[in-house]
């Protein structure tokens, strides 16, 4: 079992890495062939997914149950 501090650190690192990957992918799609308007739906989906990831980090690691 992980300690509370370890869970917070690992959860933050994992959420940060997923965020960097998804935002980089969205940036690449928007500046590439699709253009801004072609990449806009992907940006909306990406921001929604990232908000779910941040909520899950908060729910599992930060919130007191």
Commentary on this structure:
This protein is mainly α and 65 residues long. It has a domain at 29-60. It is 86% helix and 0% strand. The chain contains two helices and no strands. It has helices at 4-31, 35-62. α1 (4-31) runs antiparallel to α2. The longest helix is centred in the N-terminal third of the chain and has 28 residues, at 4-31.
Q: Supply the number of helical segments.
A: 2
Q: How much helix is in the residues?
A: over 70%
Mean pLDDT: 92
Overall shape: it is: elongated
Pick out the low-confidence regions: none
Query: By helix and strand content, what is the structural category?
Result: mainly alpha
SSE pattern? HH
The total beta strand count reads 0
* Distance linking N and C termini: 17 Å
Largest sheet: none
Task: List key phrases describing it.
65 residues, mainly alpha, 86% helix, elongated
Write the layout of secondary structure elements.
Layout: H1 4-31, H2 35-62
Helix pairs in contact: 1-2
Summarize the structure.
By secondary structure, the chain is mostly helical. The chain is built from 2 helices and no strands. It has a domain at 29-60.
């Amino acid at each position: 079992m992980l300690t509370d501090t370890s869970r917070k650190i690992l959860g933050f690192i994992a959420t940060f890495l997923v965020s960097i990957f998804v935002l980089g992918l969205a940036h690449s799609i928007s500046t590439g062939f699709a253009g801004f308007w072609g990449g806009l739906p992907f940006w909306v989906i990406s921001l929604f997914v990232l908000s779910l990831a941040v909520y899950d980090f908060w729910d599992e690691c930060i919130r007191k149950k």
